[in-house]
Amino acid sequence: MNKRIYHYALATCLLTGAGACTTQKELQMPERVSVPVTSAPGTDTLSLQSFDQVFRDPHLKTLVDSALLHNYDLLSASRRVAAAQANLMMARNAWLPSVNLSLTAGVDHFADYTMTGVGNFDTNKSPNINNDQRAPDPTPEYFAGIRSSWEIDLWGKLKQQRKATYARFLASQEGRRLLTTQITAGVTGLYYELLAMDSELTIIRRNIRLQEAAVATVNIQKEAGRATELAVQQFTAQLLSTQALEYGVKQEITSLENQLNALMGRLPQPITRSTTRDSVTLPPSVPTAIPGNLLLLRPDVQRAELELSAAQADVKAARAAFLPGLTITPYAGFNAFKAGLLFKTPASMAWGALGSLTAPVFNKKQLKAQYNISTASAYTAFYDYQQAIVNGYQEVATALNKVENQQQTFALKTKEVQVLQQAVSTANILFTTGYANYLEVITAQKNVLEAELALVTTRRNVYQGLVSLYRALGGNR
């Protein structure tokens, strides 16, 4: 049977012309770029991708879980996945015949100089028919039954379309996973920004108390004749400057809380988080080698690869469209030209089938244009896939270096703060004993404040580097 169908297809090509059944050349993709990726020996690289193993703050986990449940962008992405799944269902069933219940009624008046008109006239004069078989003029037409249409997938066009749709469905799932990773990283980054602001607020308030004590001390010394009004003014100005910093940090905290609430799909409200004392520790060191197995599992890389697969399948389907198509259209039901006779069995029962082989002749320009569009889309998808790999490699490399460098910076900044804190104590002692002037005390206090704030910033950068690394490796919840 299959051989006979292909013979008919060949005959159709010959009848419609030698060029009617020619198709386009197969798609040849450029050579893929090779990216040198290695894994650190003896290191569990999966721990770099696992959120729970890297970020162990219970309050953060609660916020992330809430965002993944209520974020509107993520809910919208879930609907896009559902739509892609519905498209996949249609593509999977495209090879099946369509079966439709048909109830039709119509009327025709045939001209006297037509085969049907002459035939009806002669038939009505025949003594071999009864009154029920005489065709009225005009002639009604009634049909009640089933009509079907079935396109036989001779050249795999429907199969390639199904393959493309399935790849795009998987790509939509990877797109949702990418959005999940981005939202998780966004919540985590904002959370550690918030903890850093809390630490800065604590440091500023502690310095305000120290500077208030310094202002009180210098006022006492002025009354005793050991300090001038200028010293009082300088200490007071420093206190006012530090107090102004407090309100700036408060505004930053409010802004960060509102951004976190927006990611969680809720109106502004207080964010429950760890205390400043709990947030001063640093995470453990991470390996410096780039884990290649995780790099290729990034959702954007996976999505780009699936889009490339879908585009290549589109090209194959476009090539198959140049070849003849076989369609079978059967029907069965009740047929009569009088409504009262429609269901009079078995005389009113009718059935039939039509098979047609069609090959494109005059619409090849449109088919060629569609082929060119599919080919261009395939090359675009290929370049997007290559760029996704390159982007992933540089993001992971940058994040790894950021974490390592910021951890080294944190160690040095910690020592700097310790030295400057000792310098403040020394300056205060020397000032009260008359061996240092007020400018040296103010400078020491200013330096320690700046160093403590810089230490908080460095610790925040370490966590932000880990968040970037988590996102660069694709995330895992």
Automatic annotation (TrEMBL):
This is RND transporter. PROSITE patterns: PROKAR_LIPOPROTEIN. It comes from Chitinophaga flava. The keyword Membrane applies. Transmembrane segments: none annotated. GO terms for cellular component: plasma membrane. It is found in: Cell membrane. Keywords: Lipoprotein, Membrane, Palmitate, Transmembrane, Transmembrane beta strand. It is a lipid-anchor. Signal peptide: none annotated. Belongs to the outer membrane factor (OMF) (TC 1.B.17) family. One of its GO terms (molecular function) is efflux transmembrane transporter activity.
